Amino acid sequence: MPRISGQPKARAKLKASPRGTRVPKVGFVSLGCPKALVDSERILTQLRAEGYEVAPTYEAADVVVVNTCGFIDSAVDESLDAIGEALERNGRVIVTGCLGARPERILERHPRVLKVTGPHAYEEVVSAVHEHLPPRTDPFLDLLPPQGVRLTPRHYAYLKIAEGCNNRCSFCIIPTMRGDLVSRPIDEVMREAERLVNAGVKELLVISQDTSAYGADLRYARGSWRGQEYATRFIDLARALGELGVWVRMHYVYPYPHVDKVIPLMAERRVLPYLDIPFQHGSASVLKRMRRPAHAVDTLARIRAWRDDCPDLTLRSTFIVGFPGETEAEFAELLKWLDEAQLDRVGCFKYSPVEGATANALPDHVAPEVQEERYARFMERAARISARRLATRVGRELRVLVDTVDGDIAVARSEADAPQIDGVVRIEGGGKLREGDWARVRITGADAYDLTGHLAPK
Ligand code: SF4
User: Fold this and answer.
1) Which distant-in-sequence residues (6+ apart) come within 8 Å of 203 by Cβ?
2) Which pLDDT score, from 0 to 100, does residue 13 have?
3) Hey, which residues does 402 pair with through a beta bridge?
């Protein structure tokens, strides 16, 4: 079966989860011109970000997508034959692409196809995949926001650079489910990123389980892109993505010393001055019980140094309260840490056991009412910090990217806001803007999470 996107062979070894939830696998056949290839890449990028795997054969796939061409008769014949082959060898087939604009041609010969969509209809294709092969959603394990799987608009895209994880955090079963780190070679990632940008994507969201560890499994193998050599390594990836001239947002980074090197690129706006670091706690003893990577690092000193070098740096993080054995003193340490760290964006979970995680065996699980009370105290503190930090933006002019327009209000994001998880910038009088537009906004108001403003005079 033709493959359009290389998958490291090791991925085929991924195991089923202890809960029996299999990773859903999609086969992909891409025919036709470069435009069709861009659509295929876009669909695959979305599906990979949602946790689907790309199957290398018809037999290994749970469903097959055929992206067809209908330009000339021979291309139509080739497309119809490809659909026939996919039906014969797999049986569950979704058709998209140019020939999809003439569904009667397809259905006449292949009435068993599950769905036919037209060209450039990647949202519909992804919906059809969801319908016939639901994603394996798990708010604890998924990389995408907990609001669930949503299609990304055309102006931003998730770029998944690796799968699996070499860490062994005690509350997490991802390494058991998805195996050790398997990075995608840098040239492959950059080609995908470039195709997305050529297709109109203005913001790339880099995701993996541990973005700072990118390439360690490949021994930082070198690859070539646009005639230059890059290592498969976090800092080289940031440098290369910085060449694309779009917003590049880094998610799931750990505070290892080598991460310091990306801060100058952020100060120069080669990549966005935004780091999403799942700190999870502020107490060294809790972090040790969690077996967190870089748990011995003095994170507060690191944050201070980063902000010295890049004062506009936005820090987002998530935390777990009520981890087994968490004492009131350890929780107080977390609050103190938060006060000093002054993070811009914070999410919080109450610890809950996951079947198969080693933390389940730890003594002194925290009572649910204590977890609830600590969660409320933590969130109240985080909201106050966020409100204070956002208030400093009032009066400033910010560059924003528009996500939606409703009547006379455009909802946009600044470089400090990741889609779906952070706040927004509401632009009053922004009715003429369109989704995916850039705009300059004068900020006039702020609350705990969002900003308000109006278009800045040109
Ligand atoms: S870093 Fe820890 S929490 Fe994150 S995927 Fe790896 S083991 Fe799980």
Assistant:
1) 155, 156, 157, 246, 247, 248, 249, 401, 419
2) 27
3) 412
In single-letter form, the type of residue at position 394 comes to: V
To which H or E segment does residue 406 belong?
Answer: strand 397-406
What is the overall mean pLDDT for the chain?
Answer: 87
Distances (CA, A) of 73 to 69, 78, 81, 225: 10, 9, 12, 36
Q: Which residues line ligand 1 (CB under 6 A)?
A: 165, 167-169, 172, 174-175, 209-210, 293
DSSP 31: -
Distance 147 CA to ligand 1 centre (A): 20
Centroid of ligand 1 to alpha carbon of 233 (angstroms): 19
Residue nearest to atom 4 of ligand 1 (CA): 209
Q: How far is the CA of 165 from the centre of ligand 1 (A)?
A: 6
In whole angstroms, what is the distance from residue 262 CA to residue 27 CA? Answer: 36
Task: Name the residue of 17, 160, 166, 167 whose CB sits within 8 Å of the most ligand 1 atoms, as the mutation to test its pocket.
Answer: 167
Residue 175 CA to ligand 1 center (angstroms) comes to 7
**Minimum-distance ligand 1 atom for the alpha carbon of 168:** 7
Q: Per-residue pLDDT tens for 231-246?
A: 999 999 999 999 999 9
Using CA atoms, how far apart are residues 35 and 51, in angstroms rounded to an integer?
25
How far away, in angstroms, is 363 Cα from ligand 1 center? 21
Report pLDDT digits (tens) over 31-45: 876 556 667 877 887
**pLDDT tens for residues 134-178?**
887 655 555 555 443 445 677 888 888 988 889 899 988 778 866
Q: What is the per-residue pLDDT for 150? A: 45
Average pLDDT over residues 390-412: 96
CB 79 within 8 A of CB 68: yes
Name beta bridge partners: 159.
206
Of 72, 88, 145, 83, give the one whose Cα is nearest residue 115. Answer: 83
Ligand 1 atom closest to Cα of 210?
Answer: 1
Determine the pLDDT at residue 3.
35
CA dist 359 and 295 (Å) reads 16
The token duo for 220 is 């930082």
Residue 33 or 223, more confident = 223
Q: Name which of 315, 364, 361 is nearest 340 in CA terms.
A: 315
